[in-house]
Write a structure and sequence with these properties.
The complex is a heterodimer of chains A (about 150) and B (about 160).
Chain A: H1 13-48, H2 55-58, E1 62-66, E2 69-72, H3 75-81, H4 85-90, E3 106-109, E4 112-115, H5 135-152
Antiparallel strand pairs in A: 1-2, 3-4
Helix pairs in contact in A: 1-5
Chain B: H1 6-24, E1 37-39, E2 51-63, E3 71-82, H2 86-100, E4 104-110, E5 120-137, H3 145-148, E6 150-160
Parallel strand pairs in B: 1-2
Antiparallel strand pairs in B: 2-3, 3-6, 4-5, 5-6
Classes of the chains: A mainly alpha (about 150), B alpha+beta (about 160).
């Protein structure tokens, strides 16, 4: 038996149509992956923090770089708004570069260090290191599964 | 007594593998002292530089098939290098990457009441390794000595075979 397939569309139309579908699918996939990465990193930050304020989690958001490229965690923005982001992820004995192991002047209030310059405020030296939360590595591990999921979505 | 779970077995298997390799490859500091491998997050004051710390951080367990309760378990392992200078950091990172690249043997540990120092070790499958990150940990300048020359390698691992 011989089977012949003939394209009814004009030459090149099918190719254009297939390319359009592939492009739309790729756009959807990268946007979806960015959304999943944002959710994952926020979730890990909040879940691994003892008293989460949301400031660090809020500093991570997805942003489109080009048509098929998205990013989560703009380093310039992170350094400006939450300069301690590396210390929380990797763990550290000091919270910032020029800090020399002393907290800014302030006092403890409900488990938080509140900066101030009142008569009860003082310079404190932290007694214990910051434990590594590894939220970046956890998110990358999550993304290994997410990529498979998104690529298998119809 | 309960046998050790997978996390502890994995940590211990990696610890023993690296500890043996440190001796085999003569991985020493500038004073010819073998680089110690520590299990856990850096927190003990008696830990000295340089050292390498390993610990299992997290587990992912996606379904292997739709409707199946069989899981594809993978384990996130964090390996931190605490070096005393940049050269040492880079050399240790390079050695570590090459050493764990081919994976390592998984051992189940069953504690022995009669001989606690010598638990029963049962050889399991091969722990396969997928590198997630491999980079210097930059925490800024003028940081504490422990934070000055750090490197982190994070790996996703899974146990294959029996």
């Amino acid at each position: 038996m011989r089977l012949t397939v003939k394209a009814l569309s004009k030459s090149g139309t099918f190719r254009k149509w297939a390319t359009k579908i592939a492009e739309e699918k790729a756009e959807r996939a990268v946007r979806r992956l960015a959304e999943m990465a944002e959710i994952s990193i926020k979730m890990w930050i909040l879940n691994t923090s003892k008293i989460p304020t949301g400031a660090l989690a809020d500093a991570f958001f997805k942003e489109q770089i080009s048509k098929y490229s998205w990013g989560v965690g703009n380093i310039e923005h992170l350094n400006k708004t939450v300069p301690y982001w590396r210390h929380v992820n990797f763990g550290s004995l000091a919270i910032s570069a020029d800090w020399q192991h002393i907290l800014p002047k302030g006092h403890w209030e409900n488990g938080r260090w509140v900066e101030g310059d009142g008569p009860d405020d003082y310079f404190a030296t932290p007694g214990s290191p910051i434990q590594a939360h590894n939220y970046i590595e956890k998110t990358i591990a999550d993304m290994q599964i997410a990529i498979k999921q998104v690529l298998s979505e119809k | 007594m309960l046998a050790w779970g997978k996390y502890r077995n994995l940590e211990n298997s990696l610890y023993e593998f690296l500890d043996d390799k440190v001796t085999d490859d003569s991985v020493t500091d500038i004073n010819d002292v073998l680089i110690p491998i520590r299990v856990g997050r850096k927190r003990d004051n008696d830990w000295t530089l340089p050292c390498i710390t390993v610990y299992v951080d997290n587990e992912s367990a996606e379904r292997s098939e739709i409707g199946s309760n069989n899981r594809l378990e993978s384990y996130l392992i964090i390996i931190d290098i605490y070096a005393t200078n940049e050269g040492e950091r880079m050399d240790l990172a390079n050695w570590l990457k090459d050493t764990i690249n081919d994976g390592f043997r998984y051992f189940s540990i069953i504690p022995s009441k009669s001989d606690p120092q010598n638990p029963i070790k049962v050889s399991g499958g091969l722990v396969e390794v997928n590198f997630l990150t491999n980079a210097r940990v930059a925490l800024g300048q003028n940081v504490d000595l422990e934070d000055s020359h750090r490197h982190r390698i994070s790996i996703n691992t899974w146990i294959s075979g029996t």
